[in-house]
Amino acid sequence: MREKPHQQLIYLPSADADALAECLVALANADGGLIVLGLDDNGKPADEIWDEEAEGALRAAVMQCRPPVVTRWQRIEAPHGDLIGIQIPRSADLHTLADGRVLVREGRENRPITGQALRQLAGNRTVAEYEAETVPGADRDDLSAEIIAEYLAKREARGLSNIGSLDQLLFEIGATDRDNNPTVAGTLLFSAKPHIFLPQSGVVFVKFSGTDPRGADGGIGYGRRDEIQGPLHHIVERTWNIIWEEMRVGAHVRGLQREEVPEYPRFAVREAIVNAICHRDYHIKGRRIEVRMYDDRMEIISPGGLPGYMTLDNLVEEHFSRNPRIVGGLYQWGYIEELGLGIDRMIEEMAEAGHPPPSFDATPYSFTVTLRSERERPASPKWAHSMNERQVRALTFVRENGSITNRDYQYLCPSVSAETLRRDLADLVSRGILLKIGSKKGTHYILK
Q1: Which residue intervals of the chain bear CATH 3.30.565.60?
Q2: Backbone angles phi, psi at 434, to 5 degrees
Q3: Residue 221, CB half-sphere, CA atoms under 13 Å: how many?
Q4: How confident is the model at residue 378 (pLDDT cuts 50, 70, 90)?
Q5: Where do you find CATH 1.10.10.10 in the chain?
Q6: Fold classified for 9-122
Q7: Among 141-155, 381-395, 429-443, which is the least confidently predicted range?
Q8: Which of 6, 280, 357, 406 could connect to 302 by a Cys-Cys bridge, CB 3.0–4.6 Å?
Q9: C-alpha to C-alpha distance for 386 and 392, rounded to whole angstroms
């Protein structure tokens, strides 16, 4: 092809999934464009690429994009034979790669961006806007006056006065548009039966009788199944109550006082529920939030991958909301104690109760939090409150194995730089939590 690569045109000589994923994200975050396979940077033919090879690379590349990038396959006529083209439209979402990198196409380069440039790009995208769309078939009368009154009372209890008309307030918090039509956020927060308009809302709770979804005979293995519907604050309460009914409760005796010890820390469970309800992708219409309770663990599965620039490695340090209006609503209801600190405290509560830290798993279409119920080690002391998630993971490893090396720590946190991990361990040594033994390659750390 005579045309040189530019802002909206990329040539790739081979069907390499990693390179293709970078191009998909860069174009989607910029102005969109066309990727042509089988040409070098000068537009000259490279290796021949078969359709099956290109299709496999494209599938693998899309799986690396968060959220997945929309693509369109097309044939391109060329003097030496047809070529494979992949058209990418400009996306309304902010896309990242699976490793957390954000790329933007600038001229002939796919440029990584961070810091202020990343925040500016995120601010210019319309991620999280589905909650602001109006709901077909719903009108202002579908928002419950009783639920709204309860919400207003909660706001006033938090010291927020309600100035102006009710309709103006509902518009300001994103519950309605300027024409007084209910939005997705408003319907979920204030409709008595939001599932009539948004059947994907709600939670499905399933309690399995063992550690596997299947029973001993290979059939259905659950003993209880509940479908929880209604406005979001009711869903939070009802889901929590069902989990509490199914949780095992033990006891400790301190002096003459008997203290109940639930199977899972209360805050960790409630935070996992609230996070799933706040941050799920309500645009996905075919699936609800699922809570699966087994004998040894609980899984909270939320439809939709991690939003924006969030990755598994920056969950504690970074914060990005897909549904800020829903988050704000549940904060006013009192179900979010302090914005942005829930996961930190969830990790601390699990560690203090003697459980392993929560585990997180993300795919392009779902996010899962797993809480494990075993208590194979003593409860963590109060200094666990001042540790980050990586350090909690390191201390868990030391408790289970007796010591930890820099290589062990890098294996536990493969996506974190060696220098950051070295500082983590040095911090634990300086605070008297770990003791450094040996030097150079023989260095290892034990509990002090």
Answers
A1: 203-372
A2: -115, 155
A3: 15
A4: very low
A5: 387-447
A6: 3.30.950
A7: 381-395
A8: 280
A9: 10
User: What pLDDT score does 444 carry?
Assistant: 85
Q: What is the largest CA-CA distance in the chain?
A: 90
The rounded distance, in Å, linking the Cα atoms of 249 and 424 is 35
Q: Whole-prediction pTM value?
A: 0.61
Query: Is residue 159 predicted with pLDDT exceeding 80?
Result: no
Cβ–Cβ < 8 Å for 360, 312: yes
Whether the Cβ atoms of residue 182 and residue 135 lie closer than 8 Å to each other: yes
Short-list 102, 104, 100, CA closest to 32: 104
Residue 94 has pLDDT above 90, yes or no: no
How far is Cα 410 from Cα 422, in angstroms, rounded to an integer? 9
- For the beta carbon of residue 273, count every other beta carbon within 10 angstroms: 23
Instruction: Let me know: does 280 contact 288? Beta carbons within 8 Å.
Output: no
